[in-house]
Queue: 2 jobs
Job 1
Amino acid sequence: EMTDLGELLHQISERFEMITKDKNIGFNKDIPMHPLYVDMDKDKMTQVFDNIVSNAVKYSPDGGQITIQVITRAKAIDIEVTDEGVGIPKDSQPKVFDRFYRVDKARARNLGGTGLGLAIAKELVESHDGYISIDSEWQKGTTVSVTLPYSVHEKAGVSE
Ligand code: ATP
Ligand code: MG
C-alpha cells in the first residue's frame, strides 16, 4: 500500500527518543517535509527501521548522535541511519546480514537480542525490490542504507 515514508520515520524516531531518554541520544532528522508516498507494507518496513534504529541506539555511547536522512532520487529513495557508535570491523561487515551473526559475542550477550534483526531486515527489504547495505568504521560509527523503488510522481493510491 502507499505509505508516507517520512511520517513513518518521524514516528519511529520519536518513539526511540522517548524510550532512550536515559541515554541522551540526539536524534537528527533530515527528512523532506512533504509526503513521500512509497509502495510498501507498512508493518514490515516498520520492523526494518525499528531494527536499524534500535541497533544504532544499542551500539551508541551515551550522548551519541543518530542521524536519519532521506535522499530522493529519480526512481529510488534512500534512507540512511548513521550512528557514532562502536562500529564494525571491515571483515565482519558482510556477515552482519547472516542469521545469528554478531560481531562481539560477549558484548552481544550483555546487550540481548538474537542476531536475527538484520537478516530479517534484508529479507523484508528485498521482498520490496530494495537493497540494504552497511558501511562502518571500527570505533567511529556505522551507516545502514536502505534503498526502495520510488517514483516522485506517485500519489496515494495512484501510481503511473
Ligand atoms: P537482534 O536484532 O536480533 O535483537 P542483534 O541486534 O545483535 O540482535 P542484528 O540486528 O542482526 O542482531 O545485528 C547483527 C550484528 O551486527 C550485531 O550483533 C552487531 O554486532 C552488529 N551491528 C548491527 N548494527 C550495528 C551498529 N549500528 N553498530 C555496530 N554494530 C552493529
Ligand atoms: Mg538488531
Job 2
Amino acid sequence: MGPAEITVFVDPDGEVTFSDLPEDLVEVVRSLDPETLLARGVAAGGQGAEDPGGVEAFDVRPVALDHGEVVLLDQRKLPGEEVYVRLRTAEEVAGAIRDMVVRGAPAIGITAAMGIAADIENAGGEDLAARFEAADRVLREARPTAVNLAWAVDRMARVFEGVRGRDAGAIREALRSEAERILDEDIAMNRAIGRHGADLIPDGATVMTHCNAGALATGGYGTALGVVRAAREAGRRVRVVACETRPYLQGARLTAWELVREGFEVTLITDSAAGSLMASGEVTCVVVGADRIAANGDVANKVGTYTHAVLAHRHGLPFYVAAPSSTLDPATPDGSHIPVEERPPDEVTSCGGTRVAAEGVRVRNPAFDVTPWSLVTAIITERGVHRPGPEGYRF
Ligand code: MRU
C-alpha cells in the first residue's frame, strides 16, 4: 500500500479542515497543531514510507533525526523505490552526502547538523571535543559547492562552544535541539520564500525549472518548487516544465516525482529543448534554486542553470533564483571564487547503469555552474524579493 494523501484546507480565518482523513489517522492528525500541519503537511505512512513518528509529510521530508539516528530518504532510488536509511556516525552521514543519498543545498546542511548530533549521541566515553572536531571536519568536506553545509556546521560549532564544559547529557541535548531548529527554520524560510515568490507568478503561468529545488532538496516544501506550490496555494493556475538535468537526472527523477504525486501539471523535457520551448512562447519564467550566492549576487547552481539564464535573457523572460539566506555567502565576493565540484566521470559515460559513451573518451563533469548576477532578474529569499542595482545585488 502506498501513502494515503490528505488534503489540508485553510480558510481565510485560519480554520484548518481535512479531506478524506483515514480513520486510523484522525486522532494523530487532530493532535497536531495547525502550524505544524501547515509547515509539514501530513499523510499516512504506507509500507516502506514510514517516518519515525508514523506520520510523514506529503510534501516530503528527506531528512529527520530519530533516537540518535539520521533518517534519510534514499534519493538515489527515487522514483522507483521509497527507501529510508538510518545512520549513526558522522563518517556514515558524510558518505551519504557524497554519494547523493541526500542532495540539495539546504538538505545537506540539515543532514550535516543532524549527523553531528547523532555522532555525539552515539559517542561512548570518549573526549567529546575531539569527537566533535572530527565530525565537523568530515562533514564540512563532504561536498564543496553548497555553502549551506559549512553554514550548518558553523552553527553546530557555535552551540558546542557554548556548552563545552557541561556534562555529556547537556551537550547532546543542545546539539540535538540546534539540529532540529535548523530543520524547522528551513521549512519556515521556504514557506516565506514561497509567499514572496508567488507574487511573481501570474495566473496561467508556465514555470521552467532545472534540477530539483523542491521538498527533497530542503527540510520540506522547497525553494523554487516552494514558489510554485505557494502560487497554487494562492489560487493561481500554474504549470511546470522540468528540465531533466543531465547527468544525474534530478529533474526527471525527483522534480517530476514530487510534482506528479501532488497533482501538478508537469512536463519533462531534455535540457537541450529549453531554448526551443522559450522561443515558441511556451515559458512564462524560469525559477531555480541555488547552492551558493556570492556577495554580488552571482549564483552557483546545478550545471545547466547558466545556459537557461542566457536563453531566458535572449528571449526576454524573467529568470528568478529562490534561496534561503543560509545560501548567501557574504565572504565570497563573486562567482569566480566559488568552488565547483567535479563529480565522477561514470555519471556522464553511463545512463541508468548502462555505458553509453565510447570507451577511452576523456570526460569533464562539473556538477555546478555560475550564473552572473546580471542575468538574474530577482533573488527571492525569506526576507523578500531582491533586485539588482547597477553594481550587482546587495543583501
Ligand atoms: O547536486 P545536487 O543535486 O545536490 O544539486 C542541487 C542543486 O543544484 C539545487 O538546485 C540547489 O541545491 C538548490 S536546492 C533548494
